[in-house]
Amino acid sequence: MPLSNRSTLTQYLIEERRRFPNASGALNALILDVALACKAIARAVAFGELGDAMGGVDAAAVQGGAVNVQGEEQKKLDVLSNEVFLRRNEWSGCLAGMASEEMEQPWQIPAQHLRGKYLLVFDPLDGSSNIDVNVSVGSIFSILRAPQDVIDSGRDVVEADFLQPGAAQIAAGYALYGPTTMFMLSVGNGVAGFTLNPNLGEFMLTHANVRVPEDTHEFAINASNARFWEPPVKRYVDECLAGATGPRGKDFNMRWIASMVAEAHRILMRGGVFLYPRDTKDLRKPGRLRLLYEANPIGFLMEQAGGRASTGQLPMLGVAPSSLHQRIGLVFGSKHEVERIERYHRDPPPRELHNPLFSERSLFRD
Q: Whole-model pTM?
């Protein structure tokens, strides 16, 4: 097999580390462990119902069907993916603790392993409800620096240690398990995309310096929730649907995959805007998506790629988390569209001018 001139993920991380001569290399090691977990999960997803053991975890011993902290039924691959993330990342001495969408409490690093200065937050298998119909799914992760007292004392981590705004992220990314397996990553210096070469077992750099176009003609939203949308969201969607003859003066396409990673990947590759806004469907939930496991890492990637991420009203990366499994409304994608949606939340729509000749109280009334 001829050698490729493409960089591997390892080479890319070494080059990025050179920007910080005093760096220990722990962050590089952690990201490579995350990537290894994603390779193992990609293999399991590819086997589907055929089943397979992966990453040192016995797939046959893992059971699904339980209800997780989110109130959702766990599929077998949810549990398996969570175990792989834990086992692949707990041993290296890079982490002070972990938190997962699938676990109610933070995960403590076992006593036999060294503890490090980072926190890993992850959704081990996003979109797993789509597995049965063979739609792309993925894993999402975020890396934070542990509070200094955790590093100094070596104490067990607690929920409050993870409650950091998205702007505090050191790195974030996702793996997409589709026709090819991709690993999208930002270490705070733009976004790079890597494709898994199955012959080499390596992630190869295929998308350097990914940028989200500022303008778009695509939007993604779950239209079945239209009756619950707040007025600014309804106004935005109505204007898009009005097309070239409406106030926007151009036609839009609507997309909806119902897989967060797949939606984010499409937007990183060609632009667009994604809306999963706060609505009135369930007033107990100020949104559907999880702040720490989904909104913050995807928001970090979007901002690093020149896009924008928002609650619809506020910049997403400035939100101070209040709980480990906090939900939130999320809008992200092409910068100018997200800014328009924020403006619609901030400013009331213009008053319609009524024609007195044709109103209910007109010159032609009886």
A: 0.90
**What residue type is 303 in one-letter code?**
E
Residues 290/101, Cβ–Cβ less than 8 Å: yes
- Report the candidate in 213, 169, 204 with the shortest Cα–Cα distance to residue 306: 213
Residues 6+ apart with CB under 8 A from 48: 131, 134
298 and 307 Cβ atoms separated by less than 8 Å: no
Residue 210 in tokens = 């990914």
Say which residue the tokens 């992760």 belong to.
141
Q: What is the band of 9 on the pLDDT scale with cuts at 50, 70, 90?
A: very high
Task: State what percent of residues in the chain have pLDDT above 90.
Answer: 78
Record the tokens describing residue 14, joined without a space: 């070494």
Provide the pLDDT confidence category of residue 208 given band limits of 50, 70 and 90: very high
Who contacts 234 (Cβ-Cβ below 8 Å, separation ≥6)?
226
Distance in angstroms (rounded) separating the CA atoms of residues 115 and 113: 7
Strands 171-177 and 137-145: antiparallel
Q: Is 183 exposed, middle or buried (0-12, 13-18, 19+ CB in 10 A)?
A: buried
Dihedral through CA 208, CA 128, CA 100, CA 263, nearest 10? Answer: 40
- N-terminal to C-terminal alpha carbon distance within the chain: 88
Dump pLDDT digits (tens) for 115-125. Answer: 999 999 999 99
Cα 340–chain centre separation:
22
Q: Which of 288, 220, 289, 223 is nearest to 256 (CA)?
A: 220
Locate 312 and state its tokens.
Answer: 């619809």
